[in-house]
């Protein structure tokens, strides 16, 4: 981890910074179908409920966050699969925060009993594809026209990282 950079579990009082960084990412229109503004108090509630959320600090300031959401709430047999999300503030990118967050998210998700993380990445999102590639994730395949963002179809690359005993060959 580069000097000045640290990753830790988020506290409820990080929620405003997390919302700000998420909203900046939503406004960029590069990473998500989500267009609705995110609000700190709701994020604080999720953190208090025990959702796994990590933040990256650069010289003591929160510059990024990562979290997991259930892949499939309806089916108990998928409870070990989680979907990862991460955002780094625009001004703090290319400093290793994304790599550090994704690495620590895998460690924490495994500790929480997950055997797999999945990610859904727009095929147009080159920084994110480069990040997951350099972090050892595998590319599963591409969903064509998986949704519309501002009226335009987007293709979505599904990526995954096996954890724990799922990591073993065979
Ligand atoms: C994708 C994102 C999280 C990367 O975060 P980051 O802190 O910049 O990532 P890192 O500094 O750890 O970069 C890791 C590697 O990814 C690749 N990478 C990152 N940004 C890149 C870019 N703009 N162009 C090409 N490669 C890039 C590089 O290989 C980089 O390693 P290097 O800097 O040593 O060359 C960040 O760009 C971001 O928040 N984007 C908007 C939101 C988003 O796309 N989230 C992910 C989708 S769910």
Would you give an account of this structure?
The protein has helices at residues 15-28, 40-48, 97-111, 126-134; strands at 5-9, 53-58, 61-70, 81-88, 116-122, 138-149, 152-162. A hairpin with a 2-residue loop joins strand 2 (53-58) and strand 3 (61-70). Helix 1 packs across helix 2 (40-48). It has four helices and seven strands; from the N terminus they run E-H-H-E-E-E-H-E-H-E-E. Strands 1-2-3-4-5-7-6 form a seven-stranded mixed sheet. It is 28% helix and 35% strand. It is α+β, with helices and mostly antiparallel strands and 170 residues long. Residues 25, 30-31, 85-88, 93-99, 121, 125-128, 130-131, 134 line the site of coenzyme A. The site of coenzyme A has 22 residues, from strand 4, helix 3 and helix 4.
> Whole-Å distance between the termini?
32 Å
Low-confidence stretches: none
The fraction of residues in strands falls at 25-35%
Going by helix content, strand content and strand pairing, the class is alpha+beta
Output mean pLDDT.
96
Features:
seven-stranded mixed beta sheet; binds coenzyme A; 170 residues; globular; alpha+beta
Structure at a glance:
By secondary structure, the chain is α+β, with helices and mostly antiparallel strands. Helices cover 28% and strands 35% of the residues. The termini are far apart.
Topology:
Blueprint: E1 5-9, H1 15-28, H2 40-48, E2 53-58, E3 61-70, E4 81-88, H3 97-111, E5 116-122, H4 126-134, E6 138-149, E7 152-162
Parallel strand pairs: 4-5
Antiparallel strand pairs: 1-2, 2-3, 3-4, 5-7, 6-7
Coenzyme A is lined by residues 25, 30-31, 85-88, 93-99, 121, 125-128, 130-131, 134.
């Amino acid at each position: 981890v580069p000097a000045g950079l640290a990753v830790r579990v988020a506290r409820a009082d990080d929620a405003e910074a997390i919302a700000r960084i998420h909203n900046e990412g939503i406004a960029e229109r590069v990473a998500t179908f989500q267009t609705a503004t995110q609000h700190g108090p709701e994020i604080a509630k999720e953190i208090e409920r025990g959702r796994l959320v990590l933040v990256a600090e650069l010289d003591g300031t929160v510059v990024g966050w990562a979290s997991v959401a259930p892949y499939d709430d309806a089916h108990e047999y998928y409870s070990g699969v989680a979907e990862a999300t991460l955002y780094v503030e625009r001004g703090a990118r290319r400093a290793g925060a994304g790599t550090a967050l994704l690495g620590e998210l895998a460690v924490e998700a495994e500790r929480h009993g997950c055997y797999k993380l999945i990610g859904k990445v727009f095929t147009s999102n080159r920084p994110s594809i480069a990040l997951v590639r350099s972090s050892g994730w595998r590319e599963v395949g591409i969903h064509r026209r998986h949704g519309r963002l501002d009226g335009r179809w987007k293709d979505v690359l599904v990526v995954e990282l096996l954890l724990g005993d799922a990591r073993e060959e065979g």
